[in-house]
Amino acid sequence: MSTTSNQPIPNPTGPSPPLVRLVVKPDRGRSLVAAGPIKPGQVVLVDSPLILYPSSLASLPLCCSRCFRVLPSQPFPCPSCHVALFCSPKCLSLSHPHLLCHALPSLVSGNDTWPDDLLFLLSAYSLPSNSLLQLLSLHSNSRYPDEQMPLIHSQLSSFIPPNLVPTHFSPETTSSLLSKKKTNSVLRGGRALGFYLWASMINHDCLPNVCRFGNIDDPTRENNTDLIFRALHEIKEGSEICRSYVVRSDEYRERHSWLIEYYGFRCKCDRCKIESKWFGNEGEYADEEEELVEREVNFPHWDLLMRYTCKCDGTLAPLPPYPDGSVSDIMECNWCGIIRKYEPPDDDPF
Ligand SMILES: C[S@@+](CC[C@H](N)C(=O)[O-])C[C@H]1O[C@@H](n2cnc3c(N)ncnc32)[C@H](O)[C@@H]1O
C-alpha cells in the first residue's frame, strides 16, 4: 500500500518528463517509484548536491573547493580565506560556503575535537534557508551523542561572527543536522561529502534495479558533482526504484549488520528471505552440505546477481538506450568504468 505524494520531483538536468514519482510507504517511508515503464540502461534520475564539502581538512590542499576535482599544479587561492584552493577562474568566481570561508583560517590552525563535523555544519549553515530546510527534511535514524552536543555547538558558535549568524542557528538544528550525516552523506572521490535530496529518497534492496554513476574526476562532464542513476533492467510502471546500500556480493550476515548499524532497518527483500536461512545465519539448514545444495539448486537470484556484478565488485548497467529506443547490450561498471559486452555467467555459481 502506498500514498501518492503531490510533491513534484524537479530534475532539471534529468529525464523530462520525470521517470519517477515520490510515494510514501507504510513500512519504509518516502520512496521513489517508476512513473512509467523504464528501459534497461535508461537514466532514471540526475541529482545535484544540496551541499558538497571537504570530507576532512586533509582534502583542502588536494582538491578544488568548488568542483572537488584534483587540483592542477597552479591552483587559484581564495582571496578571502587564502586556505581554499580552486582549479579554475570559473570555480574561483563561484567560490565556497561563506561561513566555511570565514572559519577556515582558524579551523586549519586550531585543534578542534571534531573538525570534520565542523566542516559539515559550517557548510550546511551557509545554505540559503530553503535548502537548509530540505537538508533537515532528510531521514535519519541515529542521534548525535547528546553529551557532545553542547560542546560542538559552542565550538561552532565561536567560528560564526555575530553579523553572520544564520536564521535557523540553534543547538537543536545543529543536533538535527548531525543526525542526518550517517544515513544520507555520499563520499565523492574519497575527498568530499555530499547530500543529495532526491537520491536520498531511494530505498534499499539487495537486488537493486538501479545503480549510481558519476565519476567526480570525469573531465568530460561539466556537472561532475551530479549523481546519475541508471536502470539495470526493465522496470515496470509503479515498481519501486531501489539501489543497494551494501556491497552486493557480501554475505547475508554482513549486509544485515551494515543495514542495521547505518540505516536502522532489517531488510526483507526476496534475496534476504532466502539467504537468511542459509547455514550460519538464523538458519533452517542443519548443516553446510544442506546449505550448499540450497545455494546451488534453489537460489533463484544467481543469474541476476552475476549479470550485474563486475569483477571489481562494482555494478554493471547497460549503456543508455540508442536514440531509436533499442536497448544496448554493452555494460558499464559504475565503479571501475570498464565497458564490455554482456557475457552470460558461468554455469557453476560457486
Ligand atoms: C536514505 S533513506 C531513504 C528514504 C526514506 N525512506 C525516507 O523516508 O526519507 C534510508 C532509510 O529508509 C528506510 N529504508 C530504506 N530501504 C528500506 C527497506 N528496504 N526496508 C525498510 N526500510 C527501508 C530506512 O529507514 C533507512 O534508514
TrEMBL record:
InterPro entries per record: ASHR2-like (IPR044238), SET_dom (IPR001214), SET_dom_sf (IPR046341)
SUPFAM superfamilies membership: SET domain
Segments for region (Disordered): 1-20
Biased composition annotated in UniProt, kind: Pro residues: 9-18
Domain SET: 17-246
Pfam family, one: SET
Protein known as: Histone-lysine N-methyltransferase ASHR2
High-level lineage: Eukaryota, Viridiplantae, Streptophyta, Embryophyta, Tracheophyta
